[in-house]
Amino acid sequence: MAKILGISGSPKEKGNTAFSVQYALSLLKENHETSYVSLADKNILPCKACGACSEAGKCPMKDDMQELYKLLRWCDVLILGSPVFMGMISGQLKVMMDRCVVLPPDYSKPYEMEGKIGCGIACGWFRNGGQEGTLENMHTFFLQQNMVVINDGSPYSHVGAAVVEDAEKDELGLQTIEGTVRNIEKEFGRRK
Asked: pLDDT, tens digit, for every residue of 114-138?
């Protein structure tokens, strides 16, 4: 049984990104332990590049990121969701990612997220509306944490799950989420 964390990086608590991440988790919760977080209501301050985390091993800022650090360390699989903002991830998700610099504070040791599975879901207003670039932003984050990155696989083999406008009605987008979930199951199954 995997521990799966889904994070919606949307500024909207109930929107397409939130629905898409929760849809992925709903497909996984029967066989796995899941947890969901929306960044919409979180107070996460931008990284100040103070360097304190490299000395102390933890971030000195007191905000909602402290709760997220616990969940990020807890999970085996991380599903990130973001709306497309100017062809990239949302500001909320970028700030969260920047604050994850603390997860490998001691570069002589393995990264805390190393080997975990990471996948992304991007939500745009129309097909080819910046989802690929948004997913690549997430993949860069996963790779810098030395995580295993997966996509939605066949038959489409997108960079990840790509959803359009009204997520609940986007049949193709939902299929890319389902494909990503299948690949999570396959990858985690190989590890047993």
From this structure: 999 999 999 999 888 999 999 999 9
CA 36 – CA 81 distance, rounded (Å)? 11
Alpha helix (H) residue ranges in 57-116 = 65-74, 91-99
Q: Write out the residue range of the structural domain in which residue 41 sits.
A: 3-190
In degrees and rounded to multiples of 5, residue 78 shows phi and psi of: -120, 120
- CATH number for position 39: 3.40.50.360
Instruction: Determine the number of helices (DSSP H) and then strands (DSSP E) in the chain.
Output: 6, 6
How far apart, in whole angstroms, are the C-alpha atoms of residue 77 and residue 35? Answer: 10
Amino acid at 3: K
pTM of the model: 0.95
Q: Are 180 and 24 in contact (CB under 8 A)?
A: yes
- Structural domain total, the chain: 1
What's the pLDDT tens digit per position in 44-62? 999 999 988 877 778 999 9
Residue ranges in 3-125 assigned as alpha helix (H): 16-28, 52-56, 65-74, 91-99
Q: Is the dihedral of CA 61, 64, 70, 74 positive or negative?
A: negative
pLDDT at 94 over 90: yes
